[in-house]
């Protein structure tokens, strides 16, 4: 649950922290989308469906988290927050599309 709007300093700290781990999220999703990972995952019964299900849940949680942060962010930080949300959402959508085709 959101605690309400945050001030400028807290907003900058939150945004900076999130921007710090976004490259790791993008890297993981890229690795899950490459041929080696797909081949390995595809060889294990049920793992493709489980991976797809987990990615969809993580994507939904990430979007909800981003929306809550953006709703409570200082106005000048909203564009940067939207940019981070869009980057992560796009990466999830690409990876989910690949696994949808495998399932």
| Average residue-wise pLDDT | 92
- Overall spatial form: elongated
| Cα-based radius of gyration, to the nearest Å | 16 Å
N-end to C-end Cα span: 34 Å
Number of structural units classed as domains: 1
Give a description of the structure.
With about 100 residues, the protein is mainly alpha-helical. It has one domain. The chain has helices at about 10-35, 35-40, 45-70, 80-100. The chain is elongated and about 50 Å long.
Question: Topology, pairings included?
Answer:
Blueprint: H1 8-33, H2 35-42, H3 47-71, H4 78-102
Helix pairs in contact: 1-4, 3-4
Main features:
mainly alpha
What's this, in brief?
The protein has 4 helices and no strands. The chain is mainly α.
